[in-house]
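Archive record:
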Amino acid sequence: MLKAAFAMATVVFLAEVGCLLRSAALVAQYGKTAVLLGTIIGTAAAAVVGVYMGEWASKALPDGVVRWASGLTLVAIGVWMLAQHHNHAH
């Protein structure tokens, strides 16, 4: 269990590092305490939703379906984010 927890912490940490520039802009606008508190609350809320959805999906669906759906969802979010960035750049 500790190995899985460390792996998840590493994944979340690496994903959050990608948000550093956005965080810097928010700190400049709202201050570090507000940004830190908001980040902690938002991350915790996302983790709770993810854990419970993952538990439900693992019981309701075959493992292979859960893995494929998770991967495709991440790809779809990435494509959507790139499209949003592209639309705002023009």
The helical segments are 2-17, 20-30, 32-60, 63-89.
